[in-house]
Design brief:
By secondary structure, the chain is of the alpha/beta class. It has nine helices and twelve strands. It has a five-stranded mixed beta sheet, with helices on both faces. The protein has a five-stranded mixed beta sheet with strand order 10-9-8-11-12, with helices on both faces. It binds 5'-O-[(R)-(carboxyoxy)(hydroxy)phosphoryl]adenosine (KG4) and zinc ion.
């Protein structure tokens, strides 16, 4: 089956074409025929995403991104050979989601190809459980830690498609905290890679500790998270102190350590409580090198393993949507183009 995946839920415009075969299991395999992502530099100067600006950029980028993906796949631009078009319907910013949906509706009618609605977070899960164009070997129950600009959630997966939310963030998402702390430190958006770069420098140079940030909710007996206080603590420090050379590096390291420790501590507790030995980590924050390294080491010590995508596929892309779309297309979960609509708060159990 050939599936086109379209992603526009935040500020990345992503389109990919895959060829996939087999059911969810050891006989599943896929090939990336074409893949293109266009990120929106316009948000850098504002320090965050402006939905209407993002919407305008998606509308402008979609035809170009489609053309790049189809050319790479050696497909006709007029009428490519396709079995389905998968498109993100939520969760995300509704004006942005609508641009992808409208584009998918037009293509579906023009090419006479059925549409599959996809949950963005399921896309993050699916791309994380792939290994070299196949499914990685693992057993259920598995835990999914989804950490992105809009979400921080710990989920128990008893089988493919069965999601039980154990906990989420009560305020800011982990990625949002990276972005806000970056802005406080006058670093550009998206803040994750910038903070990570400064923190790595502080570690490699063994810079002395400057401050101690809280580990919010770490020892509370639940799987909830809270990251807004961390951002406020950094703001308070920066407002009260004149930053010296290399202070930003030290703050970045302490902030990254705090986020990592909280995520890891709660995940390890869930590993024990639910007897899961596979942890699937997905979403933009899972591109973070320090978080990956800490998770890999501590999970191995506990006899569990981490499944995570190559870092370039941790942030939003069309490939993850094509993959999720494939499994729903297999079950013939198609939808009439006119019935598609954006669902900003879509839950994993709703698609
Ligand atoms: O999944 P994603 O691309 O978009 C959403 O669905 O939100 O995640 C974007 C988020 C941003 O907040 C960005 O700062 C964060 O992922 N991010 C990172 C890193 N790369 C991206 N956070 C920490 N470390 C990184 N290396
Ligand atoms: Zn995402």
């Amino acid at each position: 089956m050939k599936i086109l995946g379209i992603e526009t839920s935040a500020d990345d415009t992503g389109i990919a074409l895959i060829e996939a075969d087999g059911k969810f299991g050891s006989d599943f395999k896929f090939k990336i025929l074409g893949n293109a992502v266009s990120s929106q530099p316009v948000h850098a100067e504002y320090g965050g995403i402006y939905p209407n600006l993002a919407k305008r950029e998606h509308t402008k980028n979609l035809p170009e991104v489609l053309e790049t993906a189809l050319r790479e796949a050696g497909e006709s631009l007029e009428k490519p050979e396709l079995d389905a078009i998968a498109v993100t319907v939520g969760p995300g910013l509704e004006p942005c989601l609508w641009t992808g949906i409208t584009f998918a509706q037009e293509l579906s009618k023009k090419w006479n190809v059925p549409l599959v609605p996809v949950n963005h977070m399921e896309g993050h899960v699916l791309i994380s459980i792939m290994e070299k164009e196949k499914l990685a070997q693992f057993e259920f129950p598995a835990l999914a830690l989804l950490v992105s600009g809009g979400h921080t959630e710990l989920i128990l997966m008893k089988a493919f498609g069965q999601y039980e939310y154990l906990g989420r963030t009560r305020d800011d998402a982990a990625g949002e905290a990276f972005d806000k702390v970056a802005r406080t430190l006058s670093l550009p958006y998206p803040g994750g890679p910038e903070i990570s770069r400064l923190a790595a420098y502080a570690r490699s140079e063994k810079l002395p500790k400057l401050l101690t940030l809280p580990r919010p909710m770490m020892h509370e007996d639940n799987y909830e998270f809270s990251f807004a206080g961390l951002k406020t603590a950094v703001e308070r420090y920066v407002n009260a102190n004149e930053l010296q050379s290399l202070d930003r590096e030290k703050i970045a390291r302490e902030f990254e350590d705090a986020v990592t420790e909280v995520l890891l501590f709660k995940t390890l507790r869930a590993v024990e409580e639910y007897g899961a030995n596979t942890i699937v980590m997905g979403g933009g924050v899972s591109a973070n090198k320090h978080i990956r390294a800490e998770f890999t080491e501590k999970l191995e010590a506990q006899g569990a393993k981490l499944l995570v995508s190559p870092p370039e596929f941790s942030t939003d892309n069309g490939l993850m949507i094509a993959l999720a779309g494939y499994f729903h297309a297999l079950k013939k979960e198609f939808i009439e183009p006119n019935l598609l609509h954006a669902q900003g708060n879509l839950d994993l159990n709703q698609t």
